[in-house]
Each structure stands twice: as C-alpha cells, then as structure tokens.
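Anyone? Bumping this.
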Amino acid sequence: MIPFAYLDPISGSFLFQALAAVVLGALVYARIVMGKAKQMLGMDAPKDEDDDDDDT
Amino acid sequence: MTDRVAGSFRDPSGFVFRHEGVIHRTVMPSYAPHYDKLMDSGLYAKLTDKQLLIPHQEVTLDLPETAGAHRVLRPQPVPFISFPYEWCFGQLKDAALLTLRMQKLALKRGMMLKDASAYNVQFLGGKPVFIDTLSFETYEEGSPWIAYGQFCQHFLAPLALIAKVDMRLASLLRPQIDGVDLDLASRLLPATSWLNFGILTHIHLHAKSTNRHAQGASTDQAKQATVSQTGMTGLIDSLKNTVQALQWNPSGTEWADYYDNTNYTQQAASFKGRTIAGWLEKTTPKTVWDLGANTGVYSKIAAETGAYTVAADIDPAAVERHYRGLKQSGATNVLPLLQSLDNPSPSLGWAHTERPSLTDRGPCDVAMALALVHHLAISNHVPLQQLGAWFATLCRHLIIEFVPRTDSQVKLMLSMREDSFPDYTTEGFEAAMLHSFEVEERTPVEGSERTLYLLRSRKLD
C-alpha cells in the first residue's frame, strides 16, 4: 500500500488523456471528413449547439 | 464590514470576500494575463450573453484586502448557494454539460478551464451558471486538459453510479469533497458498464492508468504528454456524449407519487393553498424555504409572490420531477434541493468552513413546514420542542401544519410502531412551539383535521 500523501493523482490521468485523445481525435477528424463529404453530396451535417459561436 | 469567505483559499489567482454584505472577488497579479485575455478575447462577453458565466462589474475598493490586486470584481449575487451533494440527477447532469460547453467555448478563444469542480456551478434563474470567473487560463497548443480527472470525479463518476447502480450513491459526493475516486467508481459500477465506450474510457481505463502511475515514477513522462486541439475536442465530445446518454428514471420511491396518495380533499387542499398565499402576502418574504416540498405544489405559490424559493425534499425522485417540471415551465425563482431534514447538510471541508451547513446559509424570511412535523416527530423521534428550536434559527416566520393523531396518515404511522409520543397533541405542539415562536395566526384547515399556524421566531427578532 502506497502512503496516500505520496500518491501522484495527475500523471496517470495525463498519460491516459494523451492516449485517449489520439483515438478520440481521430474520430473527430473522421467526423469532419464525413461532414465535408455529406456537404459535397448536398446532405445536411448535424450542427453543434455552439457551432455558430465560432466568430474568432 | 469586510470578511474573507472562509472557503476561498485554494486558488492563488484570487479570493472571495464579503464587503458590506456583498460578495466581491480579487484578481491577483499572477492571474492578470489570463483575466485580461478572458475579457479581451470576447470570451467573457460570449459566455455572459449566453448566461453560462456569472456576470460581474469591475469596482474600485480601497481596502486592506484588495491592496495589490489587479482587479476587484463584484459578481451578480446568487440568492442561495447550493452544493452538488444537494442536487438531483438532472441538476448534476446539466451542471456537467455546462462545464463541458464552457471548456469547448473557451478553447475556441484560446483559453481553457483549469478546473472543473462541480462547486464552480450554481443555479441562477432556474439554470446552472458557472461562477468561478478565475477558472480560465490561456490554452497552449498541445497542453492536456488539467481538469480532465477532476471532471470525471466530480461529474461523470457520480452520474454513472446513479444511472447504472443506485441513486443513493449520489450521497458519496458529501464525504468525498473532491469528487468520487475513479477506482472506487470503477469497482462499484456493474460489469456491463465495461461495454459502454464512454464509461469504459473515462472511468474504468482512466482509473487503471491513474492507479498504475500513482507512485510518481511517471511524472517526467506525464509532463511531456501532449494533446492536440482535435484530440481535446474529441475528448470533450466523448465526455459530452457519455454524460448525455446517462439517464435516471425518477419513479418507485416513497414520495415521488405523494400527491396521488395524499388524504387531502380538494376542498382542504384549496383552503390550504389560499391560506398560505394570504400569509405569504402578509409577510412579504424575499426568500422562502419550503421544507419537505415534494414536487413543489406549495413552492409554486411562494414563487408566485416573487420570493426566491428553495424547495427542499428528502426524496430524489420528487426533487428530480420538480426540477424537470420547472425546466419545462421556465420558472426562474425556485431551486429544488435534496435535503434530509433529520440529517441536514452539515458544514464540510477545511475547518468546517468550506461548505456551510444548511442552517449557516440562512436565515430565510419564511420557512414552510407543511405536512412535515409528524414525520420528524414520529418517524424520527425528534422532540417537538427541539424541532421548534431549530426552525426558529432558520427563518423569521414559519408556516407550519400540525397533523393530529386522528388523521389517517398519523394513524398509519402509529400503527407500525410503539406509541411513545404522549406530547404529540395539538396542545403539546403549541406549547413546544411557544418556546421559540410567537403565534401570529392559527386556522383549522377546512375539510380536514389539520391546523395551520403562522409563527414568528423569537430568536431572530
């Protein structure tokens, strides 16, 4: 048993997040490609509630 | 008079203090670049326009507390501070979705949330609102989301436990002030949850990774971990989809169908409603606490007088139904709250000051205890005099209903236990209340055997 005071709660979360983000980012990328393909085919892609906020 | 809010010490970016009864917040020089970016990037304007972030005014105050501060903010007041362990499933879920939406909007303007604590959310105007203006920091391309683990502990784990195991596990948020540990959540969730992609990713595998690297050997490796902006978007979208898919059906509890099983006649219910409305008009409260509110029938009457109404009930299904009803109706001045009155929210956190007890968040102008006393006095054995003494610290006026022994509900209660309540009589009740209150009005409820009282606290005069 590791003493509670010396536990590192962040490292495992960061490393896991980096790994998960690669997989989940690939899904986002695939969704973007699919959305563009649908647009080219004249189909409506689903909109995010904050898509219209992109005024940067 | 100025005093620092005792629970505001964790974030070196600033602290919250009360000046002449009004909440203020300092922005310390170390946080100045982030604060200026929040204001200059248009993010603050966008978030406040959408009523997602609490608006504030920048003020000038020459006080010892504000010496050296970059800015002093006066945020819009929140009428009642509630805590995640007092929310129903729907409230916690809406707060989770708000936090994710904030993170996504912040990323679009080159910022991100540095913490995702459920305590950063309050309910204002019937909707969750983010209250910690100093939670935003400049986003650097490649940075992981530092608050990812906190989001999972504060929101995802308790929501998943409620949806997949049992609503009663929501109470874990009370002792676990930093959220539900992911390894504990992972162990409590059923085996079938491993088939849910979001729960598998953000709870089970996340917990395994956190435990595996808990000895600190991977600290350097973790410092080099990078997350692309697309990866971050994927992470947030995945969390959002997981949270959105979690459902809880508010049914089958003792109180959720209370109004279908009550012994009130239409005549008595109508008389009771009229009497309460009249007494509320007479006392002109700004704040009302409806204790034992169920799905909020009488809270609605209080809210219609313009008072900000906290509708507390022990039953999660009743609170959930009330919250859903209010969302549909668009009511803005009622806050449904989970509260067990025989064990109300205590003071929690460092030095018992971070999260004040229910009593410490009062007093309110009027409390209503309708069809409640027999539950506390008979089911929970609370002596009537003690009950009155506590109520008198909570409110200036109390509208209270006495349900006599001859009432069918009390008869049913007494039939299931030894009758050790010799003082549970109208005379005993009045004598007990008189220790802490003065009686302003008293009226029998037409069409029933019950009596309503309007009392004035002697302790808060």
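Late reply, but here is one note on the structure posted above: Residues 84-245 of chain B form one domain.
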